[in-house]
């Protein structure tokens, strides 16, 4: 499939209340967010004409902006409506949706007191992040060089663009070496998350997953915990040391893009996708597609 640059496509993007042609959806080079990282975003999936957990995503977008000390000029309901309208305008019923909020070019300074908050929403076709065969046998991850920051040094609860710089570097480095992704530790050395997905481990039929004190509390993560508990599967949220990975039989990652994807390898540790991982993967697929 030929590569199509994201700035050279047909379609429409919602920007500050209006639809503009895709190629004209631009902002100034002196935009505050470009220089100082004052940007937050969401990643959402529409399945069969319905955006999964849309309102929780819109709520998190506003919450993330507040954590970066700026307010969005739209309510959660207005953001929900704009996301739906964008998909409809694009003629899409199965797609990826990207709302982004950022401070504009009104002021170029470390301070942002005179900068205006802007919101844009784009949607495009995006098939499964990993093909079914890859998911069934599990993806391979290496250890990331970079660590998730201490919440006392960065707003780690926000889905902030600036926090993804270390994710970009880690995932790109991993892909260059033939891996699908990288697993990150937190600042203390505990297992944290992949570059864009939360992680779960299986030990004797019990799920273990890191707490949210250094990771993003993913909406897919929350959904999987609810699904597991509904099936009678025990879920233990705790700190996990890297050396403990040798005691786990299965591993999988969760996220809007990854959905539920089994893992076969993290660095020197190996896992075999089993009934629990594959079962939750299938359950999640049925849930989002309302089957």
UniProtKB/TrEMBL annotation:
GO biological process, one term: L-leucine biosynthetic process
Xref: Gene3D superfamilies: 3.30.470.10, D-amino Acid Aminotransferase, subunit A, domain 2
Molecular function as annotated in GO: branched-chain-amino-acid transaminase activity
Catalysed reactions, semicolon-separated: L-valine + 2-oxoglutarate = 3-methyl-2-oxobutanoate + L-glutamate; L-isoleucine + 2-oxoglutarate = (S)-3-methyl-2-oxopentanoate + L-glutamate; L-leucine + 2-oxoglutarate = 4-methyl-2-oxopentanoate + L-glutamate
Segments passing through the bilayer: none
Enzyme class: transferase
UniProt keyword annotations, A-Z: Amino-acid biosynthesis, Aminotransferase, Branched-chain amino acid biosynthesis, Pyridoxal phosphate, Transferase
InterPro entries for the chain: Aminotrans_IV, Aminotrans_IV_CS, Aminotransferase-like, B_amino_transI, BCAT-like_C, BCAT-like_N, Class-IV_PLP-Dep_Aminotrnsfr
Enzyme Commission code: 2.6.1.42
Needed cofactors: pyridoxal 5'-phosphate
A Pfam entry, by short name: Aminotran_4
Pathway of action: Amino-acid biosynthesis; L-isoleucine biosynthesis; L-isoleucine from 2-oxobutanoate: step 4/4; Amino-acid biosynthesis; L-valine biosynthesis; L-valine from pyruvate: step 4/4; Amino-acid biosynthesis; L-leucine biosynthesis; L-leucine from 3-methyl-2-oxobutanoate: step 4/4
Protein function: Acts on leucine, isoleucine and valine.
Similarity remark: Belongs to the class-IV pyridoxal-phosphate-dependent aminotransferase family.
Protein name, entry field: Branched-chain-amino-acid aminotransferase
Organism in which the protein naturally occurs: Brevundimonas basaltis
Gene that produces this protein: ilvE
């Amino acid at each position: 499939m030929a590569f199509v640059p994201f700035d050279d496509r047909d379609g429409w993007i919602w920007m500050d209340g209006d639809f503009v042609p895709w190629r004209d959806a631009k902002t100034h080079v002196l935009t505050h967010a470009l220089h100082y990282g004052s940007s937050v975003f969401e990643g959402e999936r529409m399945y069969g004409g319905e955006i999964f957990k849309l309102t929780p995503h819109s709520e998190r977008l506003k919450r993330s902006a507040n954590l970066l000390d700026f307010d969005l000029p739209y309510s959660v309901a207005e953001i929900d409506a704009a996301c739906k309208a964008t998909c409809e305008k694009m003629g899409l019923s199965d797609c990826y949706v990207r709302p982004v909020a950022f401070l504009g070019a009104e002021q170029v300074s470390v301070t942002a007191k005179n900068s205006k908050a802007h919101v844009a929403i784009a949607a495009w076709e995006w098939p499964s992040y990993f093909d079914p065969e890859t998911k069934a046998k599990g993806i391979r991850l290496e250890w990331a060089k970079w660590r998730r920051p201490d919440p006392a040094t960065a707003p780690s609860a926000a889905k902030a663009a600036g926090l993804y710089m270390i994710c970009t570097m880690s995932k790109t480095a991993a892909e260059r070496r033939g891996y699908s992704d990288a697993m990150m530790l937190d600042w203390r050395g505990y297992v944290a998350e992949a570059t864009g997905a939360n992680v779960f481990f299986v030990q004797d039929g019990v799920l273990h997953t890191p707490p949210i004190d250094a990771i993003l509390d993913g909406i897919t993560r929350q959904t999987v915990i609810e699904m597991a508990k509904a099936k009678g599967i025990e879920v233990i949220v705790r700190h996990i040391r890297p050396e403990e990975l040798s005691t786990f039989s299965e591993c999988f990652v969760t996220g809007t893009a990854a959905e539920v994807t089994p893992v076969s390898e993290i660095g020197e540790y190996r896992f075999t996708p089993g009934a629990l991982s594959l079962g939750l993967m299938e359950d999640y697929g049925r849930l989002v597609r309302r089957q």
